[in-house]
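Subject: for your reference before the review

Hello V.,

The reviewers asked for a structural picture of the protein, and I figured it would be easier to keep everything in one thread rather than splitting it across files. Below is the amino acid sequence we used in the manuscript, unchanged from the supplementary table.
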Amino acid sequence: MQRLRTVFSLLLSLGIALLSSGYGHTKDKPVHLRLGTLSLQSGSVFQLAEDFGYFQEEGLSTEFHIFPSAQKIALAVASNDLDIGLTGITAAVFNLAGHGKLKLIAGNFREEPGWEGSAIVVSNKAWREGLHHPRQLAGHTLAVTDIGSTLHFTAGRISDKYAFPSGSIKPIPLHSFPEIFTALATDQVDSSIVPGMLAHRMEKKKNGHIIGWVSEETPWQVTGLLVSSRLLTQDHQTVEKFLHAFRKGSRLYHESFNQVPPEANLKNLADGKQPLRQVTESMQQFIAPVMTAEQMVRYPLYMDIDARLDLKSVEEQLRWYQEQGMVNRRVTLDQVIDKPLVSSFTTP
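And here is what came back from the structure prediction:
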């Protein structure tokens, strides 16, 4: 009997230790999650959910890790260096999902007609030589963060729209946006895809010219929420709680910037209207280079109110990457998404 009691005590101690580590839940200790994203407006939804208490309400504590490119975030989630990533949907996402390493569970930034998300920008040299419209990009270089990145996919969609031969827009991988800005400003590349506010800043500084907007040329689902398969398997409840908080952050962004015209919001900002002022102050902690409150209001991204994932767009992306030989043709949409979580909100 004494031996049985000893064994039971050891098992109980082991159980408590397991609950106190990893993703285990205890009564008073919040579950700690490692989050990765880019320091852009799309990633600032994490900061909003943190500053407005949405994560805390779900019993979660978080630490943020900033990355220079989307592909690196997907790799970090797949290797369990991150629990959750908010980033562009890239070839790496599909390949890693095909190997069972991660899942897409929600949407984020979407190129939506009427909203200036990302601009197609050309260098001064290319502009002087007559590159004034996206239909003229064939035969030109286009700076991307990585091969298989969201910028690369956008170039492919432009090629398809204007019936360019495959590969006629030459992607030049530069691995980070600062490198891309420098390459454009010094005429090392002909073109690139640049976040809207930064594109306007480049024009103002005479470092480039906007020749079109992705939202008008080729609308699509750009970023999404990635979850490591380990977290999804070991602690599905935590993922659900995180998703609930994340959607509240997305709703806050949408209500602050997508439901009110910029002109009216500028007046709201000048009047100190809340929570708009609090929202912009929260985002300013996160975005680099820093955007002023006025810039956030003038150049908002489009965020779905419920962080829904546009499955039609995701499927189109998967097919394109497969056609380019960047993703195995055996990878299916069912391997990429977590159906129950994605289906918890109707996709558009």
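For the response letter, the relevant points are probably these. The domain at 118-218 is CATH 3.40.190.10 (D-Maltodextrin-Binding Protein; domain 2). The two ends are 62 Å apart (CA to CA).

Happy to draft the paragraph if you're swamped.

O.
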